[in-house]
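Re: the request from the purification team.
They wanted to know what the chain is likely to look like in 3D before they choose a buffer screen. I agreed to run a prediction and write the result into the notebook, where they can find it.
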Amino acid sequence: MAAVGDLAPGFRERAPGLEEAAALPVDNLRELHATGLDTAFLPVGLGGEGASMGTFGRVVGAIAAACPSTACIWLMHIGAAVGLAQMAPPPAGERFAAALRDGKRFANALSEPTSGNLFLTPLQTATPTDGGWSLEGAKRFVSGSEIADHLLVNALVDGVPTFFGIDPDDTVTSVDIWDTMGLRATRSQLLTFSGTLLPADRRCRPPEGADANPIAVGLPWLSIGLAEAALADLRAHAGGRVLPTTGEPLSHMQWVQFATADAWIALRGARLLAELACWYADHDPARFLPAAFEAKLAANEAARQVADVAMRAGGASGYLRSSPIERHFRNAQAGGLMAYSVEVCRDVIGKAVLGVDG
């Protein structure tokens, strides 16, 4: 955490320019690797430090508070790398772990244009070929894909969702259509696969109950960090803007106090749920997934709520592109759209609470 604290001021300073230009935060990612954080969360048996998922979540949150696009790319990078290192057969798994230690980049290429939130249940079928299987299709929202040395990809093999680790080659093409409202610096492009080889010796085992992948752990913290940044700028604006009608700061208005209180409680609750999910990931993985759904839903909604209060308190000045509040408001929408979206989370949680099969 101390290393992230040292890097955060620079990340925060560069964030507006990176978002405006939709430019990958390459320097930020290199600085993170130089601290040793990339390999800290690898299992000890794979040359890492075996750091806890609780620590991982808080690191993602701290990065997100400074530059959420950097946090998003790093989260997907670590999730893909750790997943491949753990699930790929030997010696491929060891090679992926070594690549992470050496500073190679990983990206998560699972979501399909027609599969919606079902990123773990692909619709595209891989066909047998020499050395493995061949993939024709596309994957979307691949954060940091343009600098990735390795991709985590899935496809149907004999009707079963199957994961592979591949190295992008000339059969993998980036479609430059990234022009989003928020998290622009992730450059989460659409990739097309034209007869791409999915090697048999890099076919991963299925995920197991004990696999608490860092992506599921970190997604709530991405929204929590963003919400905490928005809250900090809300405090600064409300405390610094003096109303000409009363001569008092905006923070003295009751509606601002009430709205801030509601947003604060939502954020506190989301952080507690995210901490609980991390505890399960570290100590009781069988109970992790339900908690991860709850934490993501709470965090996504808290980020939107805090950013909305900041925007309303900021008024016309908060609506200007020069204001950090405007950027927080746009970025806060992204978490709820990421799989599993808030609608899917509500569906899963509601069914569980009501005892509905599904």
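For the purification team: The beta strands are 106-109, 127-129, 132-142, 150-157, 160-166, 172-175, 189-199.
Please add any questions underneath this entry.
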